[in-house]
Every structure is written in structure tokens, then in C-alpha cells.
């Protein structure tokens, strides 16, 4: 079968199962299978593909049709210009989370010193490792409660050749003893009862432990904001990703816990997505 025929068939199938970006998905999955760039298809439309690869491709498109995210099917996701390995044990890094990383990067640049950074609930390592890659002299500690997530974060550090990351298996601060200039986290923040209502890509395929923020979705903000006070140096930064409707609630949590200069920032879609604050004492 020719590349153009295979792609057209896959696009049709993905349209029938109502996937929102059928052509992109079909091309990304085929490019990954053939180990080429998507651009390759423009010049090689008429190339024949071996039957066994066509069969394999059909299975992958079948998985996408059932709702599995493309990132899990191909096994990686770009974030901050870096290619992260992902699997179903970790949340897929989102473009909106880049706003959090960019804020932290700017904050570090302004401090003009080497800093210690802690990433709580690191998952694939997307946040902590992309910060670490930009500041090789800073130390970034990445923690997660999931051993599988931590293994993946380590694997990503190896693959990306990032040497200034440390990895600790820890339920929030339980196994942490140092102090930090910056604590950053994209904790689970979906209210438990709302998880089933998310799109199937998220509710069925992404790990519940990375999504479930308790009854009102705010459990981890309360816990981290309170416990972080013991682990932040004076005048240092706490930076959270938040759900689109949690801005004011998380601002309140930080203020109640004595953080100053508390503010929220918007994501690419214009929704509240980040809340930051600095510790008054430490
Ligand atoms: N941004 C994710 C979503 O809405 C949730 C991430 C999280 O809970 N930290 O699908």
C-alpha cells in the first residue's frame, strides 16, 4: 500500500470516531512508526509500505480511535523544545505548563545566582528537567510518589543529558530535608467528582494519581503551601500550576500561609493557570 492511501484511510477512520485532529494524528503516528519526519510524506506519497508495517499502523490507529492520546501511542512528547519520553504512568506534558516553566526561568535569571529548585510531583520530569537544562549550575531536585514516574524522569534526564537533577521518591516533602530557593509544582488539581467528565483521553488514559486533587481539587495546594514553609529559604518562590477556575482559591491559600506578592498568571487560552508567591519569613 502507498503512503498516501494509508494516510487517507487512517484520516477517514479517525474522522469517523470523531477525533478532532485526524490528519495530524495519522501523520504523527505514521512518522513515528516509520522513523521519519512528517515532512517526508510530502515527497514520498507514492512510496510502498511493507504489509507488516501497514498492519501495525492499523492497530495504532485503532488505539487512537478508542481515545488513547497520541503521546502515549508514540511514547514521547515535546515540551520546552525538549523531547520527553512519556508513558501511561505519567501525565502528558501540556503546552500551558510551559508558562509555569517560563515564569520560573525568568525569576532565576533575575536572581543572578545559582539556585536550588524543588519540583514536587515531577511525573516525566518535564518541569524540573527543562529548568535544569537551562541552568546547568543550579541543582534541581525532582520528587514523585510514584516509583515508575521517578524512573521515567531519570530516564529522561539521561536521554537529554541533564546532569544537575536529583531524584527522590517522596510523598510531597516526606523524604526531603534541604531548603530551596524555588519550589515548583503542577500537582493533581481536578476535583475527584469531575474526573469522569473530562475528555476520554484524560479520564481513561492518564494516571488518576496525577489528576485527583481531592473533593474540591485543592488538597495539594493546602498541603504544599503549608509544608513548603519549612523548606523554602527566606524570600523564596512557590510557583503552582492551577486549574482554570482555582486562581482566587489558591491565592487565598497562599495568603493565609503568609506568602507575599501573591499573583496569578494566565495560560495561552486566556485562563488563570499559574499562581505564585514569595515566603515572608524562612
Ligand atoms: N491539566 C490537566 C487537565 O486538565 C490536569 C493536570 C493536573 O491535575 N495537574 O487535564
From TrEMBL:
It is an enzyme of class 2 (transferase). The lineage of its organism: Bacteria, Bacillati, Bacillota, Clostridia, Eubacteriales. Residues 5-75 form the Release factor glutamine methyltransferase N-terminal domain. One of its GO terms (molecular function) is nucleic acid binding. It comes from Alkalibaculum bacchi. This is Release factor glutamine methyltransferase. PROSITE patterns: N6_MTASE. Substrate binds at residues 186-189. It catalyses: L-glutaminyl-[peptide chain release factor] + S-adenosyl-L-methionine = N(5)-methyl-L-glutaminyl-[peptide chain release factor] + S-adenosyl-L-homocysteine + H(+).
Amino acid at each position: 500500500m502507498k503512503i498516501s492511501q494509508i494516510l487517507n484511510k487512517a484520516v477517514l477512520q479517525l474522522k469517523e470516531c470523531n477525533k478532532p485532529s485526524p490528519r495530524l494524528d495519522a501523520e504523527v503516528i505514521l512518522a513515528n512508526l516509520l522513523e521519519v519526519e512528517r515532512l517526508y510524506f510530502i515527497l514520498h506519497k507514492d512510496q510502498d509500505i511493507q504489509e507488516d508495517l501497514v498492519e501495525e499502523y492499523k492497530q495504532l490507529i485503532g488505539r487512537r480511535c478508542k481515545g488513547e492520546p497520541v503521546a502515549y501511542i508514540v511514547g514521547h512528547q515535546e515540551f520546552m523544545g525538549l523531547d520527553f519520553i512519556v508513558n501511561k504512568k505519567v501525565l502528558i506534558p501540556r503546552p500551558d505548563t510551559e508558562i509555569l516553566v517560563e515564569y520560573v526561568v525568568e525569576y532565576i535569571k533575575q536572581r543572578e545566582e545559582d539556585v536550588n529548585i524543588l519540583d514536587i510531583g515531577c511525573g516525566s520530569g518535564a518541569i524540573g528537567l527543562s529548568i535544569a537544562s537551562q541552568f546547568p549550575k543550579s541543582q534541581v531536585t525532582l520528587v514523585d510518589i510514584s516509583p515508575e514516574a521517578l524512573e521515567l524522569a531519570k530516564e529522561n534526564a539521561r536521554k537529554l543529558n541533564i546532569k544537575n537533577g536529583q531524584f527522590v521518591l517522596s510523598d510531597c516533602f516526606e523524604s526531603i530535608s534541604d531548603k530551596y530557593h524555588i519550589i515548583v509544582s503542577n500537582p493533581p488539581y481536578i476535583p475527584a467528582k469531575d474526573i469522569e467528565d473530562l475528555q476520554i483521553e484524560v479520564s481513561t488514559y492518564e494516571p488518576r494519581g496525577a489528576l485527583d486533587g481531592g473533593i474540591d481539587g485543592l488538597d495539594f495546594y493546602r498541603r504544599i503551601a503549608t509544608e513548603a514553609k519549612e523548606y523554602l529559604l527566606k524570600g523564596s518562590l512557590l510557583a503552582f500550576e492551577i486549574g482554570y477556575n482555582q486562581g482566587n482559591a489558591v491565592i487565598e491559600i497562599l495568603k493565609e500561609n503568609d506568602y507575599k506578592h501573591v499573583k496569578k498568571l494566565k495560560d495561552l487560552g486566556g485562563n488563570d493557570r499559574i499562581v505564585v508567591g514569595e515566603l515572608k519569613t524562612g
